[in-house]
Amino acid sequence: MARKPGEIYLGLKGQEILLPAYGGRKITPKPIEILREQVTVSGALASDLIGVRPAWTISYQELYGPEVEALLDLYDLHRTLNLIIVDRHGNAKEYDVILRPISLTRETIRDDWEWSGVTLELEATKCYR
């Protein structure tokens, strides 16, 4: 399957769904440092970087009901998911991730349910140094 730059997929491996690109989507990388820290006898803090675990926040200003329901269904699986991010050159990178509880701000009713302030928090299950 040919993937286009900027596409983001999420789901069980081999069953990923394309996340909507509309709705003011914003993806923010939020790497998490895994550190071993210890206070020395002199009171100084010694730190050793073990690794960096990738994490992301994907937020939407608004989404329609079917897309929100699909995301909630993914969360309800309570399983490790596969995240595919296609960079600007069309290269896809895959990560095993945990989807944290989805934040939904409010809903309005029009032709379809409309949600605003939808936020996904994703955290890779592996560290990369």
Summary of the model, kept short:
With 129 residues, this protein is mainly beta. The protein has one helix at residues 65-76; strands at 8-11, 17-18, 26-29, 32-39, 45-53, 55-64, 81-86, 92-99, 106-109, 113-124. It is built from one helix and ten strands, in the order ββββββαββββ.
Count every beta strand, where a strand is a DSSP E run of 2 or more residues. Answer: 10
Topology order in helix (H) and strand (E) letters = EEEEEEHEEEE
Uncertain parts:
none
N-to-C CA distance: 30 Å
Q: List the total number of helices.
A: 1
Mean pLDDT: 92
Task: Output the structural class.
Answer: mainly beta
Question: What can you see in these coordinates?
Answer:
- The structure is a single chain.
- This protein has 129 residues and is mainly β.
- The protein has one helix spanning 65-76; strands at 8-11, 17-18, 26-29, 32-39, 45-53, 55-64, 81-86, 92-99, 106-109, 113-124.
- The strands form 2 sheets. Strands 1, 2, 3, 6, 7, 8, 9 and 10 form an 8-stranded antiparallel β-sheet that branches.
- Strand 9 (106-109) and strand 10 form a beta hairpin.
- The longest helix has 12 residues, at 65-76.
- It is globular and about 65 Å long.
- The model has no long low-confidence stretch (mean pLDDT 92).
Please write out the topology.
Layout: E1 8-11, E2 17-18, E3 26-29, E4 32-39, E5 45-53, E6 55-64, H1 65-76, E7 81-86, E8 92-99, E9 106-109, E10 113-124
Antiparallel strand pairs: 1-2, 1-7, 3-6, 4-5, 6-10, 7-8, 8-10, 9-10
